[in-house]
Design a protein that fits this description.
One of its GO terms (cellular component) is plasma membrane. By secondary structure, the protein is α/β, with parallel strands linked by helices. It has three domains: about 110 residues, Rossmann fold, CATH 3.40.50; about 80 residues, Orthogonal Bundle (Helix Hairpins), CATH 1.10.287; about 160 residues, 2-Layer Sandwich (Heat Shock Protein 90). The chain is about 50% helix and about 20% strand. The strands form four sheets. The chain has a five-stranded parallel sheet with strand order 2-1-3-6-7, with helices on both faces. Strands 9-11-12-14-13 form a five-stranded mixed sheet. Helix 2 runs parallel beside helix 3, helix 6 packs across helix 10 and helix 7 packs parallel to helix 8. The structure holds adenosine-5'-triphosphate and magnesium ion.
Length: about 375
C-alpha cells in the first residue's frame, strides 16, 4: 500500500504535548506525518501564512493569546487550509467558539487515540478540499455569467450602433425615391428601390444576429395576442412576391383560424422559409404555400421545386451557422441562422417545424402551431 504524506504545522507552547502528539501520529498506519512544530504563537501565525503544509493543529492555550484569537486572525489574513484546535481537559465548551472563529474541528488532548486523530485530520483536509473545489466552481460560474452579461451588453451596443445609421440611410433613400418619382426618372427609381432592398437585408442580418445572442442567453421574448393566421400569410406573400420575378408564390387553401401567439415572430418564420425557397430554388417557376387546419392546430407548408436537401444533412440545417456545402452556398448569401431561429421560435410557441425533401425534387418546409395555448385570461377578453 502506498504511504501517504501529510505535513502538519503544530502551534503548541508545551513541548510535552508536542512529543505526545508526535508519538500518537507515528502509530497511525499507512500515513507518514511530517510534523513541524512552532511554540511561539506569533511566529506560528507567520508560518501558517508562508510555510507549505496540509493542515494546522493549534493549542487552545497559547500564553497571552488564545488559540481562538489566533484562528480568527489567520482566517482574517486569508489562511485557507484546515485548522484543528487542540483543547485541554474541561475545555469542551469552547468547541462552538472555535468553529465560529474558523476552525474545522477540535480534539481533546486527553483523547488522542490513534484512530480518532487520523480520522479527524483526514476528514478536515478532504472537507476543506471539497469546499475549495465548490468555491472555485461557483466563482467560475460567476465569471461566466459576468462574461455573458458583458457580451450581451456589447451585442446590444453594436446592434444599436449599426441600426442608427441604417435607419437614417433608409429614410434618405425614401426621400430620394419620392423626389424622383415626381420627376419620373425610372433609372433613379430603380436604383433607390435596390438601395432600399439592400438596406432591408442589412437590417434583417442585424436582427438575426441579435436574435441568436438572445436565444443563447434565454432572452428571446414573445409578445402574444390573437391574430388572423391567413391574413398574416397573405400579407407576407404579397410583401415577398416583388422580391422575385421568376417564381410565382401560389397560395393553396385556408385555415380560417384565429391563433394565439406572437404574430411578428411567426411572421419572421414564414418570411425566412419563403426567402429560403426563393434563394435555394432559383430556377423553378413556383413556390406553393399551403394552409391547413384542424380543430386544434394550423399547418403551413412551403414547397419549392429546387435542388432539395440531401437526407444526411436534413437535421443539421436547423443548427446555427450550418449551410449545405456546394456551389450555391458560395453564391447565395446567408449566415445559416434563419432555420435555427425559426425552429426556436416555433418550439417556443409549442409547435413543430420540419422538412421533407428529396434531392432533385425540391423541399417542403412545414410547421404546425396550436391554435390555443395557455395565456392570461384578461388578454383573451381584450383581444379583438
Ligand atoms: N428551400 C431550401 N432548399 C434547399 N436548401 C435549403 C432550403 N432552405 C434551406 N436550405 C439549406 O439550409 C441552410 C440553412 O438555411 P438557413 O435559412 O438556416 O440559413 P441561410 O439561408 O443560409 O442564411 P440566413 O437564413 O441566416 O440568411 C441553407 O444554407 C441551405 O443550404
Ligand atoms: Mg435562410
Amino acid at each position: 500500500m502506498d504511504i501517504q504524506r501529510t505535513t502538519i504545522l503544530l502551534i503548541e507552547d508545551d513541548e510535552e504535548d508536542y512529543i505526545l502528539l508526535k508519538k500518537a501520529l507515528t502509530k497511525i498506519p499507512h500515513v507518514h506525518y511530517d510534523l513541524r512544530w512552532e511554540s511561539d504563537p506569533q511566529a506560528g501565525l507567520k508560518r501558517m501564512l508562508v510555510d507549505q503544509h496540509d493542515i494546522c493543529l493549534l493549542d487552545y492555550r497559547l500564553g497571552a493569546l488564545n488559540g481562538i484569537e489566533l484562528i480568527r486572525e489567520a482566517r482574517r489574513q486569508g489562511y485557507a487550509l484546515p485548522i484543528i484546535l487542540l483543547t485541554g481537559a474541561n475545555e469542551s465548551e469552547i468547541d462552538i467558539l472555535a468553529l465560529q472563529a474558523g476552525a474545522d474541528d477540535y480534539i481533546a488532548k486527553e483523547r488522542l487515540q490513534v484512530d480518532l486523530l487520523s480520522r479527524i485530520i483526514r476528514y478536515a483536509i478532504e472537507r476543506k478540499k471539497a469546499e475549495r473545489e465548490r468555491e472555485k466552481l461557483l466563482s467560475e460560474q460567476l465569471a461566466i455569467q459576468e462574461l455573458e452579461k458583458r457580451r450581451n451588453e456589447f451585442v446590444n451596443m453594436v446592434v444599436h450602433e449599426l441600426r442608427t445609421p441604417l435607419t437614417s440611410l433608409k429614410a434618405h433613400a425614401q426621400i430620394l425615391r419620392k423626389h424622383f418619382s415626381l420627376t419620373g426618372d425610372e433609372a433613379v427609381i430603380r436604383t433607390t428601390t435596390r438601395m432600399n432592398t439592400q438596406i432591408n437585408k442589412l437590417t434583417d442580418l442585424i436582427s438575426d444576429f441579435q436574435d441568436i445572442t438572445r436565444i443563447e442567453g434565454g432572452r428571446l421574448q414573445f409578445r402574444e395576442s390573437y391574430f388572423d393566421f391567413d391574413e398574416l400569410v397573405n400579407e407576407i406573400v404579397e410583401e415577398m412576391q416583388p422580391v422575385t420575378d421568376r417564381q410565382l408564390l401560389l397560395r393553396d387553401g385556408e385555415t380560417n383560424k384565429t391563433v394565439w401567439g406572437d404574430r411578428s415572430r411567426i411572421g419572421q418564420v414564414i418570411t425566412n422559409l419563403i426567402m429560403n425557397a426563393i434563394k435555394y430554388a432559383p430556377d423553378s417557376d413556383r413556390i406553393v404555400i399551403k394552409m391547413q387546419s384542424d380543430d386544434t392546430t394550423v399547418t403551413l407548408q412551403i414547397q419549392d421545386f429546387g435542388p432539395g436537401i440531401p437526407q444526411t444533412v436534413q437535421d443539421k440545417i436547423f443548427a446555427p451557422f450550418f449551410r449545405v456545402e456546394g456551389a450555391t452556398a458560395r453564391t447565395i448569401s446567408g449566415l445559416g441562422l434563419g432555420l435555427y431561429i425559426s425552429a426556436e421560435i416555433i418550439q417556443r410557441q409549442e409547435g413543430h417545424l420540419w422538412v421533407e425533401s428529396q434531392e432533385g425534387k425540391g423541399s417542403t418546409f412545414c410547421f404546425t402551431l396550436p391554435i390555443e395555448r395557455e395565456h392570461p385570461l384578461e388578454e383573451k377578453e381584450t383581444a379583438s
